[in-house]
Design a protein that fits this description.
Layout (H helix, E strand, L loop, with lengths): L6 H15 L2 E12 L6 E6 L4 E6 L1 H4 L11 E11 L4 E11 L2 H17 L17 E6 L4 H13 L4 E6 L7 H13 L6 E6 L13 H8 L5 E5 L7 H5 L2 E2 L3 H8 L3 H36 L3 H44 L1 H6 L4 E4 L4 E2 L11 E5 L4 E5 L7
Parallel strand pairs: 3-5, 6-7, 6-8, 8-9, 9-10
Antiparallel strand pairs: 1-2, 1-4, 2-3, 4-5, 11-12, 11-13, 13-14
Helix pairs in contact: 4-8, 5-6
Length: 397
C-alpha cells in the first residue's frame, strides 16, 4: 500500500536524508539578497547562472567571518545542509566563508586592514624599541623551513652564545594562523624573552595568508614583548608586518637587526673605554692645573708675616723721611720768618749807625729834646754796647 506522508512527515524525511548524506559541503556562488537583522544573524542567497540556495550564518559564527560580505561578491562557503521545516526550504548553515578570486580576497584584505587601522593596531606611536642586546630571542616559525636556518646561521656568525627559544609552528595552511598566534602568546609567558621574531621564507600571496590573519595581528598587538616580523621577501608586505614593532625585509635581516655582532660590540666598547679614559685624564689634568693655581694663590703664614714685617719697615722709613722733610721745611720756614723778623729788628738799624736813647731811670725812649731837662741821665743803646751820660745842654727844635 502506498504510504501517504503528511507535509511535516515528508519535510522531516527530506531533512533527515539531506543532513545524513550531505552533512558538510563546500559551495561557491555569488551573494545576493544579503540581510542582517537585529538578531545579528546573516541571511543571503547563493546563486550561479542556473540555481540558487538559501544560506544563513548565525550570530556566533558571523564573528569569525574575516571580511564584510556584500551583494555580488563571489565566495566559497562551508556549511551543513539542512531544511527549515516552517517553510519547507532547504538551506546551508554556513560556518566558514572566504572570498573567491583575487579581487574578492583583496577586498577582504583591504577591509581587514582598514578595520585594524581604525582600532590603532598600526599606530607608529605604540611601537616599541627593539632591545639593543637581548638576553634571549624567541622565534615563531617552521622548525624545518629556510627561515629558521637563515636566522640561526646569522646568530651563529654574529653572537654564537645568544639565547634562542624556537616555538615551532606551521606557517602555511588553515591552522597556521592559530598556531602562530598561540606561539606569540606562549613566548609572552616566559620571563626572559626580550624580543620575538615571527616569519617564514618567501611564497605566493596565498602562502603568506597566515600572516594576514586577524588572530595573528591581535597576538602581535597584545604582545608585551616587542615583535619583529620577517615574512617572505622584501617586496612582501603583510598585516603582521604592519602591526609588528619592526618589520624586517627577510628572516636573515631580522636576525641582523635583533642580534648585534659581538666583535663589533667589543670594538665599540673598547673605543668607548678609550674615549672615557681620555675624558677622565683630561678632566683630572684640568683639575690638577686648577689646584696648582689655587696653591700658588695661597700665601704661607710665615711668608705673610715676612711681608708684613718688610711692609712695616718700609712704612717706618717713609714715616721718618716724611718727618725729616717736614722738619727741614719747618726749619726753612722758621729761618725765613727769623730773617723777616731780623729785618724788622731795631738792632739792624743800630748796625747802620743809629742808636736808641732812653731816659733814666724810666727807660722811656726819647724822641723829642723837649722831654729832657738839663742834668737828666740818659742811656744810649748802640749797635754794640750801651753808654750812660748826663744832659748838659739841649737844643729844642
Amino acid at each position: 500500500m502506498q504510504k501517504i506522508f503528511s507535509v511535516s512527515e515528508l519535510t522531516f524525511e527530506i531533512k533527515r536524508l539531506l543532513e545524513d548524506n550531505l552533512y558538510y559541503v563546500w559551495v561557491e556562488g555569488e551573494i545576493s539578497n544579503l540581510r542582517s537583522p537585529v538578531s545579528g544573524h546573516l541571511y543571503f542567497t547563493l546563486k550561479d547562472a542556473y540555481s540558487q540556495l538559501r544560506c544563513v550564518i548565525f550570530k556566533g559564527q558571523s564573528r569569525l567571518v574575516k571580511f564584510k560580505p556584500m551583494d555580488g561578491m563571489h565566495i566559497i562557503c562551508r556549511g551543513m545542509v539542512s531544511v527549515y521545516p516552517d517553510r519547507g526550504e532547504y538551506q546551508i548553515i554556513v560556518d566558514y566563508l572566504e572570498p573567491k578570486g583575487i579581487g574578492a580576497q583583496q577586498i577582504a584584505l583591504q577591509q581587514l586592514k582598514e578595520r585594524l587601522s581604525k582600532e590603532g593596531l598600526f599606530d607608529e606611536k605604540r611601537k616599541r624599541q627593539i632591545p639593543m642586546l637581548p638576553h634571549r630571542v624567541g622565534i615563531v616559525t617552521s622548525p624545518t623551513g629556510a627561515a629558521i636556518r637563515d636566522i640561526l646561521k646569522v646568530f651563529q656568525r654574529r653572537f654564537a652564545n645568544i639565547g634562542v627559544l624556537i616555538y615551532p609552528v606551521r606557517v602555511q595552511g588553515i591552522e597556521s594562523a592559530r598556531e602562530i598566534a598561540n606561539g606569540i602568546w606562549e613566548l609572552n609567558r616566559i620571563d626572559d624573552i626580550d624580543v620575538i621574531i615571527i616569519g617564514r621564507g618567501g611564497g605566493s600571496q596565498e602562502d603568506l595568508q597566515a600572516f594576514n590573519e586577524e588572530s595573528v595581528a591581535r597576538a602581535i598587538y597584545n604582545s608585551r614583548v616587542p615583535v619583529v616580523s620577517a615574512v617572505g621577501h622584501e617586496i612582501d608586505w603583510t598585516i603582521a608586518d604592519m602591526v609588528s614593532d619592526l618589520r624586517a625585509p627577510t628572516p636573515s635581516a631580522a636576525a641582523e637587526i635583533v642580534v648585534k655582532s659581538k666583535n663589533e660590540l667589543i670594538e665599540k666598547i673598547g673605543g668607548a673605554v678609550a674615549i672615557l679614559k681620555s675624558a677622565i685624564s683630561g678632566m683630572l689634568n684640568e683639575k690638577r692645573a686648577g689646584l696648582h693655581r689655587v696653591e700658588k694663590a695661597i700665601i704661607h703664614p710665615r711668608q705673610r708675616l715676612h711681608d708684613y714685617m718688610q711692609r712695616t719697615d718700609s712704612l717706618a722709613e717713609r714715616l721718618l723721611l716724611a718727618i725729616s722733610n717736614r722738619f727741614t721745611l719747618a726749619k726753612k720756614e722758621i729761618q725765613m720768618l727769623a730773617s723777616g723778623i731780623n729785618a724788622l729788628s731795631p738792632l739792624n738799624v743800630l748796625d747802620r749807625g743809629y742808636s736808641i736813647t732812653r731816659k733814666l731811670p724810666s727807660l722811656a725812649i726819647l724822641r723829642d729834646s723837649r722831654n729832657v731837662c738839663i742834668g737828666d741821665e740818659l742811656s744810649i743803646v748802640l749797635s754794640k754796647g750801651e753808654v750812660f751820660c748826663r744832659v748838659y745842654a739841649k737844643d729844642e727844635v
